[in-house]
Design brief:
Helix content: 40-55%
Distance between the termini: 35 Å
Strand content: 5-15%
Structural class: mainly alpha
Number of helices: 6
Strand order of the largest sheet: 1-2
Largest sheet: 2 strands, antiparallel
Number of strands: 2
Shape: globular
Order of helices and strands: HHHHHEEH
């Protein structure tokens, strides 16, 4: 994967959910959530964001949510305000030039690193994942 230094394609798939997940870990206090639990909840948030951006269908987000539930993983984040999670995401190592960058799914199995994401969409994705 060293050739994929821009974190697109296969490398991006590996980071799917991590921007949200790292914020969950930081906001909850490290150790309150296992890394995999935080990333699982982050994957749902990222999938919701992907849907809001017009890339995924609602049924695809539901399928991801159901698969994670069946694996015994959380699908909603902790009781943190969306604004707090967004503050923490701004500190993520993938942030560049003052913009938080997100791994979104352009389709099932095809991820992309995006910085052109509106704050309102991120907030809405966090809220949608909690429902």
């Amino acid at each position: 994967m060293a050739a994929d230094e821009r974190e697109s394609g296969a490398r991006a798939l590996l980071n799917f959910g991590h921007t949200f997940g790292h914020a969950i870990e930081a906001g909850s206090g490290y150790g309150a959530w296992l890394h995999g639990e935080a990333v699982a909840a982050g994957m749902v948030m990222a999938a919701e964001l992907s849907q809001l951006m017009g890339h995924l269908k609602k049924i695809e987000v539901s399928r991801l949510r159901d698969l994670l539930k069946r694996a015994g993983l959380p699908v909603g984040g902790p009781a943190l305000a969306p604004e707090r999670l967004m503050e923490l995401m701004a500190l993520d190592k993938k942030a560049a030039k003052g913009r938080t960058r997100f791994i979104v799914l352009e389709a099932v199995g095809r991820a992309a690193l995006r910085a052109d994401v509106e704050d309102a969409a991120v907030r809405q994705a966090i809220v949608a994942a909690a429902q």
